[in-house]
């Protein structure tokens, strides 16, 4: 994203927006005045609505295919640094498989398949479960 390699990115077929955590943007050197001040409520996995800080547009590159992508920015502790939702999936003409933990999309040289890391996916899942238990207690 931009000029940075971003790890722990969730491809979410249930998200109607692309989401980027503020801490990730700070590491990229983005300042709050670079956000477009369009706040909106976003419903989290925990069922709690949070207000976004604004929007930012960044170039997202996946295996040589680049798309300008609009993100809603949230100031929350990140489990994932970014969530690429339906708008990005559609723009990439991508086909995600949660079962196989992969994403396929067309490129100028054929079909590209990107694979997720099962270990990292499991760690993120465990962190999310612990976070929910802590908030419920």
UniProtKB/TrEMBL annotation:
Source domain of life: Eukaryota
Pfam family, one: Asp_protease_2
SUPFAM superfamilies the record matches: Acid proteases
Gene3D superfamilies reported in the protein's UniProt record: Acid Proteases (2.40.70.10)
Entries under PANTHER family matching the protein: OS03G0439900 PROTEIN (PTHR33240:SF8), OS08G0508500 PROTEIN (PTHR33240)
Name this polypeptide is given: Uncharacterized protein LOC104789237
Organism per entry: Camelina sativa
């Amino acid at each position: 994203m931009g000029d940075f390699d971003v790890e722990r990115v969730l491809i979410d077929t249930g998200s109607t927006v692309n989401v980027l955590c503020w801490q990730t943007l700070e590491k990229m050197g983005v300042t709050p005045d670079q956000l477009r001040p369009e706040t909106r409520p976003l419903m989290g996995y925990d069922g709690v609505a949070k207000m976004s800080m604004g929007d930012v547009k960044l170039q997202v590159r996946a295996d040589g295919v680049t798309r300008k992508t609009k993100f809603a920015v949230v100031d929350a502790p990140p489990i994932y640094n970014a969530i690429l939702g339906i708008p990005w999936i559609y723009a990439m003409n991508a086909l995600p498989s949660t079962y196989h933990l992969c994403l396929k999309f067309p490129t100028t040289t054929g079909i590209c398949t990107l694979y997720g890391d099962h270990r990292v996916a499991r760690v993120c899942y465990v962190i999310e479960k612990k976070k929910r238990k802590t908030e419920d207690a």
